[in-house]
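Supplementary material to the annual report.
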Amino acid sequence: METLDSFSKDLLRETANIMAQKTVRPIENILRQKTIVTKPEIIMQKMEFVADSLGQADEIKDSVFIRILGDGQGAVVLLMKPEDSAKLLVEVDKDMRMDALREIANIIAGACLGGIARLLSLKLMQSVPTAATDMSRAILNEIVSEVGMTNADLLCAQVSLSIGAGKIPLSMVFIFDNDTTNLIISKSKDLTKL
Amino acid sequence: MSRIIQVPTADYAIASAPDVLSTIGIGSCIVICLYAPQAKIGALLHCMLPREENDLSNSLRNVDTAVNQVVEQFIAKNIQLTDLIAKIAGGAQMFTGPEDSNGSIGKRNIEETKRLLTTLKIPIMGEEIGGGRARSVLFELENGKVTITCAQVKTDDTFDTELVKII
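Predicted assembly:
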């Protein structure tokens, strides 16, 4: 974030706020539970620091990875502790739990990317979601390696949510490569001129 | 008194016996343990990508530049390439999906590591590579032993550490 001017930082924070709000409604619709955003956060990190800035390296997480395609390049990642996904999806058969998480991530990604794409007049598409349960650092390093092959600085928007009376935490992370970050800033600046 | 030195992603550490080098959460990344058995000096490298891709911001991120940098450190300590052996771990593919035309990052990391070590004539004495699980590595410089562990799901759905291999 140090390399960005304060106006660009504000624009990115606003983009993160929009994405945060866009995550809430689909979750409430699917799970029929009140959901609140506990933390929309923007970080700009070199790829090797992304994983450790988003969580403890050896913490086990259920994760869903969706690649962002089109005018922008990046990834959407759903992260949850396995015990939390078990609580959240208590009515879902254990073998089907990751399929359910994949579907939830797919719907949230669609709502968020669709919202941002409409706002900024971009074409953003998403890949088929894939899932894994393992150590947080390994999961995120593989994702940023896939996304960040040619760019050093990645924009990460982390939206932390609290779901239902049990306040079950769920985290959605949106990672954009450097070119896409510049595109978001440029398109956002165009909007402010209207 | 031995120290356990944790090596972060895209970094390396070089130390001597009785120290222990360690890194956790290796998925598609590759870990290269270089060891000089006579001197009991070793290095652990935790690399993310196979080759330099027009990005000079951190050369330790890439297998090719990181290995060359560490080899120079050994030579500065009067340890020659012929004195070194290697053990490697990692290169998994945790998310299965359509690979790009070059294959997964993990697979490319393995290929580049083997190509480079062959070029440098450093023999690979042990490996625990590929697959779909994250690993953690403990490298004992007293004897060159590399212990590899993974997370294991227990019957009550909690997680434990599973010893996978000692190389």
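The interface with chain B takes residues 46-49, 51-52, 57-58, 60, 65, 82-83, 86, 94, 127-128, 130-139, 141-146, 149-152 of chain A (CB under 8 Å).
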